Amino acid sequence: MARVVRNSKFRHIFGQAAKKQDCYENIRITKSAWDSTFCSVNPKFLAIITESAGGGAFLVVPLEKMGRIDRDVPLVTGHKAAVLDIAWCPHNDNVIASGSEDCTVKVWQIPDGGLTSNNLTQAAVDLVAHQRRVGQVVWHPSALNVLLSAGGDMKIFIWNVGKATILTTIDCHPEVILSVSWNYSGSRIVTSCKDKIFRIINPRTGHVVKSGMGHQGAKPARAIYLRDGRIFSTGFSRMSERQYALWDGDNLGNALTMEELDSSNGILFPFYDEDTSLIFLCGKGDSTIRYFEYTSEAPYIHYINTYSSSDPQRGMGVMPKRGMNISTCEIARFYKLLNSGLCEVISFTVPRKSELFQEDLYPDTAAEEHAMTADEWMEGKDAEPRLASVRDLNSGTKSHSNNNSGGLGVNNTNQKQEVVFGKSSTNQKTSPTSPQNSSPQKNGNGGGTNLLSQGQHADNEFLEKLVEEMRRVKIIVKGHERRIKTLEERLSQYEAPVDDLDD
């Protein structure tokens, strides 16, 4: 019987590594044994966790600064122990979160152009609650300033980064949490745990909605949400063979499909493209990247091809769709970390003869603009990420969110000005007479007119000083609030009246 070839526009996708001068080399990549990708990338910056003596550090370089990295290049060095995970904010390309073995989560504001002279040691926000190392940080896909962190204390905290407060504490895992993933609208999370059970959790309440046994093997498993609510996972069988599986979000425990790949022992990291339904599997220590296409009908997961190279990967980062090169029909770009200190850029393209924009390859993708605030999300509002045309995002500058393409300019500016912990220099590119800009200038010792006449640079410096002072005051206030709460709890044990202490 003749085999019918499945029709797919991604059937001929192929990967190709960039030339060495277009990659990044001489990087002291971390030697940590933690199961992390060690790399995060967005349309502006590449961030890589590095080896650091006496603390934790990671490297941030602008994408265009390819080639050999200087040994004395400035780093982000505020952690007191090794950094385990980093993640760029989807709603501000200048903001990155990091989790560390020092039990803290820090959020950093990276200036346009990257770090130029000194190491960045002062975080924009310090989030302190975990009692053991923080192994994972994941931003909410559509709500501004909502960040999830998971630690070795088997707890998950949902943070409002703008206020440096905890929105939810999730304490339902008996063993180490191996992975956490938001669903498309951010109304649910799925976790994999060392006890081999997958849990679907309401992130606002911490209540476990569904749970079920996942992969049977003792080695770590990872689970991610797909756009339609199903769950894709990678793990091991009882015979330590690597597997991938698809699960119905309403019926965990019985996989819709489960396939064995090989008998290697490296953990498989799944990377999912929610726009094209492509899934890339990158194994730690592998020299291959397998890619599949997901469809809603059986057999669900369709193997496409494998990209192979001679060097094993130590870590991996993937570019959001906002950073794709549409002129070459690029649909995915990976940043592969090698043990030699090289970060290799691998581009996956779909060959097309026409040079016109290929609408079938580039459906609307998640924009940098947020869909709701942290308070709205906590009150029960759900919203999918705001979408923007890939063609509009790529027409003009590299900093896609900084222009008014796609009709997002005004809303995007308002969005970034809600970011309490810092503002990128792109925020002031709107009219200086807007209420957000005119108010600080009037308070600047009567120098509002002078600030305007001095140009954009002076305006940025003045606003950054105001934000820095406000941040310091908030940290002091938060410290006093925690102290008051502790004293009130102690007094309540002796039934002492505390109402008259409110003043």
UniProtKB/TrEMBL annotation:
The keyword Coiled coil applies. GO terms for molecular function: actin filament binding. WD repeats lie at residues 76-118, 127-169. It comes from Adineta steineri. InterPro entries: Coronin, DUF1899, WD40/YVTN_repeat-like_dom_sf, WD40_repeat_CS, WD40_repeat_dom_sf, WD40_rpt. The keyword Cell membrane does not apply. SMART domains: DUF1899, DUF1900, WD40. Residues 393-412, 422-454 are annotated as: Disordered. Pfam families: DUF1899, WD40, WD40_4. Keywords: Actin-binding, Coiled coil, Repeat, WD repeat. PROSITE patterns: WD_REPEATS_1 (PS00678), WD_REPEATS_2 (PS50082), WD_REPEATS_REGION (PS50294). Residues 399-412, 428-443 have a biased composition (Low complexity). Residues 463-490 form a coiled coil. It comes from the Eukaryota. Belongs to the WD repeat coronin family. This is Coronin. Residues 3-67 form the DUF1899 domain. One of its GO terms (biological process) is actin filament organization.
